[in-house]
Amino acid sequence: MTKKPVVPKQYLIPFILVTSLFALWGFANDITNPMVKVFSKILDMSAFEGSLVQAAFYGGYCFMALPAAIFITKYSYRAGILTGLSLYAIGCLLFIPASITLSFTPFLACFFIMTCGLSFLETSANPYIMSMGDDETATRRLNLAQAFNPMGALTGMFVAKTFIMSKIDSRTQEERAALPEIELESIIQSDLAILRAPYVTLGVVVLVILVVFALFKLPIHQRDNSQGLQIGATFGRLFKNMRWVGGVIAQAFYVGAQIMCWTFIIHYGTEVFTAEGMAEQDAETLSQNYNIAAMSIFLASRFICTFLLKYFTPGKLLMVLALGGMATTLGTIYIGGRPGLYCLVATSACMALMFPTIYGIALEGLKDDAKLGSAGLIMAIGGGCLMPPLQGAMIDTQGVNLSFYLPFICFVVIALYGFACRRPRAIAA
Question: Which of 27, 56, 196, 325 is placed for a possible disulfide with 411 were both Cys, Cβ 3.0 to 4.6 Å?
Answer without folding.
Answer: 325
